[in-house]
Amino acid sequence: MKAAVFHQVKQPLTIEQIEIDDPGEHEVLVRTVASGVCHSDLHFVEGLYPMRTPAVLGHEAAGIVEQVGAGVTEFKKGEHVIACLSVFCGHCERCLSGETWLCRNRPTRGANQTPRLSKAGEGLTQFANIGSYAERMLLHENGVVKMDDDMPFAQAALIGCGVTTGVGAALNTAKVQPGSTVAVFGAGGVGLAAIQGARIAGARKIIAVDMVEHKLATARDLGATDTVDASLQDPVEKIREMTGGGADYTFEAIGLKTVAEQCFEAIRPGGTATIIGMIPVGEKVEIPGSALLSEKKLQGSSMGSNRFKIDMPRYIELYRQGRLRLDEMITKRTPLEDINDRFRAMKDGEVARSVIMFE
Ligand SMILES: [Zn+2]
Ligand SMILES: [Zn+2]
Question: For the chain, how many helices (H) and strands (E)?
Answer without folding.
Answer: 10, 19
